[in-house]
């Protein structure tokens, strides 16, 4: 056999060996004690009832023996973020529910990364037939922006009023929260939804302002 043929055979053998190593490592199974965090495959509590999603969807009977189904789905991709400052990525999800009628109700919920999988929280109602715009996390607080209708408008009206809902984890419970703002931003006032300062800051009267602090609030200053 010529040297040229020998070299060609070696190249083929080496190539096949490299491919075999790649496939062997690429298909290596996960250790048995590793559980993947997947917010699309866990349970959430919606209107007091536990709903278990499979690949982001669940169908349950509206009533025992009823052919009508309550369909729960995840709307859009989950937002990955650490919500409880434990170094693990959790998730914020928008859920929709429809029982076959005209109403489609939107909720915000979270999935906590326990290290042994995903643990879904309760879901907070956003509204019926709203138009979600974007979801983000600021100052460890969930901010959901969407369009809705004025209270006196019929459901046939196209949503055009911008609304923002703030939510925050309290342990393993998701709660509606007041907006959290940072240094130099406006805070306080006599409204129950008045913004509050982020940790390390407090609300103080605005310099040179002659308005009553208790009524109109002030600005966040460092402790």
Describe what this molecule looks like in 3D.
The protein is mainly beta. It folds into 2 domains: 43-177, no CATH class; 178-223, Omega-AgatoxinV, CATH 4.10.40. 13% of the residues lie in helices and 43% in strands. It is built from 2 helices and 17 strands. The chain has helices at residues 3-26, 213-216; strands at 43-46, 49-52, 57-61, 69-81, 90-98, 105-113, 118-120, 124-128, 131-138, 141-148, 161-170, 173-176, 180-181, 186-187, 196-197, 201-204, 218-222. Strands 3, 4, 5, 6, 7 and 8 form a 6-stranded antiparallel beta sheet that branches. The protein is extended. The relative contact order is 0.10.
Give the topology.
Layout lengths: L2 H24 L16 E4 L2 E4 L4 E5 L7 E13 L8 E9 L6 E9 L4 E3 L3 E5 L2 E8 L2 E8 L12 E10 L2 E4 L3 E2 L4 E2 L8 E2 L3 E4 L8 H4 L1 E5 L1
Parallel strand pairs: 13-15
Antiparallel strand pairs: 1-2, 3-4, 4-5, 5-6, 6-7, 6-8, 9-10, 10-11, 11-12, 14-17, 16-17
């Amino acid at each position: 056999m010529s040297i040229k043929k020998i070299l060609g055979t070696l190249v083929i053998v080496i190539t096949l060996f490299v491919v075999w190593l790649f496939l062997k490592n690429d298909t290596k199974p996960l250790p048995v004690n590793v559980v993947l965090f997947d917010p699309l495959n866990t349970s959430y509590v919606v209107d007091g009832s536990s709903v278990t999603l499979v690949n982001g969807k669940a169908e349950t009977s509206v009533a025992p023996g009823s052919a009508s189904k309550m369909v729960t789905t995840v709307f859009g991709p989950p937002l990955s973020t650490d919500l409880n400052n434990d170094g693990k990525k959790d998730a914020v999800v928008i859920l929709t529910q429809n029982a076959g009628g005209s109403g489609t109700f939107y909720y915000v919920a979270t999935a906590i990364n326990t290290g042994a999988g995903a643990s879904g929280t309760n879901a907070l109602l956003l509204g019926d037939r709203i138009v979600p715009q974007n979801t983000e996390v600021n100052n460890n607080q969930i901010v959901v922006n969407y369009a809705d209708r004025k209270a006196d408008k019929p459901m046939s009206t196209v949503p055009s009023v911008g609304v923002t809902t703030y939510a925050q984890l309290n342990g393993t419970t998701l709660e509606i929260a007041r907006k959290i703002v940072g240094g130099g931003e406006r805070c306080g006032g006599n409204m129950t939804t008045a913004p509050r300062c982020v940790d390390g800051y407090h609300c103080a009267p605005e310099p040179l302002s002659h308005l009553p602090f208790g009524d109109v609030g002030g600005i966040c200053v460092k402790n």
